[in-house]
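Subject: for your reference before the review

Hello V.,

The reviewers asked for a structural picture of the protein, and I figured it would be easier to keep everything in one thread rather than splitting it across files. Below is the amino acid sequence we used in the manuscript, unchanged from the supplementary table.
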Amino acid sequence: MKWLKWMGFPVGIAILIALVVHEGASDVVHVIGQAGPTLLWLVPFHALPLLLDAHAWRLLLGGRAPLAFLWWVATVREAVSRLLPSVGVGGEIVGIRLARWQVRDASRVSASVIVEVLITIAVQYAFSALGLVLIVASTHHSDSLRTIGLALLLSLPVPVITVALLRRGGIFHAIERWAGRLLGDAHPLLQGIDGQKLDADIDALMCRTGLLFRSFAWQLGGYMLGALETYWALALLGHPVSIGGALAIEALTQAVRHAAFMVPAGLGIQEAAVVLLAQMFGVNHEVALSLALVKRMREVVFGCMALASWQLAELVRGRRHVRPAGATLAVAAASADASHTAGGTRAASESQRAAGRDDEQRTREQVR
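And here is what came back from the structure prediction:
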């Protein structure tokens, strides 16, 4: 997987450079310059779709954490997955770690994230299917979309098999036993892991059909709200499209990006998809590439802010843990000193009493 990502990085950069050179960098800069600083409003707007995603996650957690906290964790998860050179589950692992600051039950948190990822996959398929229908109905470019539709169809067995294995139960307990035989039960990586409990928590969530549908609906709403970013950006760039067109562009862009998972951050692939799809709705080349670059700039700015907030939170939390530890050591030292002093005082008192007894004994002998 690491080699695929390192190979995909130069490919993505090459595609992006080719697009800019082909369309003309000066024309693209001119189009973006005409929109001006108003485009910066797209950065805070992205917080709204993530708020709906955070609410969907909160439902799976049973409301055990505040919505504002889970929204912040969702921003960090997205930033890690999209901006950092990590594997595809890097954001989820960070999300589990951060969520445990509020919810101590590691098994419940992990189960909620695993089930949420499965729901996200289902939402992506539904959203992509909606985009295919809208773009075919609006542009009648059915031939050019066969590849995307075929790719979605061919990849469908993977999530279906994953759901079937999770519903069968025991998969994480089996992984835990296999890792125990391979690494040894005392290995640090296996400390604090209870695969059997994790399987039970996942099964408990998967059995609640109504809860899964509510989470699915909130996530799908987040995806559709995110498509308004495309609608608003094109309006600011001087080439508005319909709501349906914006939904189709966003849906199929997401599908292409997830299909090209081997390219870090979908660099180049996302831009090429945006340009191709926007042109189907009559958007000229310069505006289409401007849209792609604006979406990328929003992603980088929003993601960097989320990563910076994460590092700041880790720093503050680390200092809070250091201070109580230092205070505990000071108290222990003071107690030891007090004990030592008290012991010395008791020893001195006993010596004085013994000396007094000796003097009294000598006096009696003299009297006799």
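For the response letter, the relevant points are probably these. The two ends are 101 Å apart (CA to CA). Residues 285-367 form the longest helix (83 residues).

Happy to draft the paragraph if you're swamped.

O.
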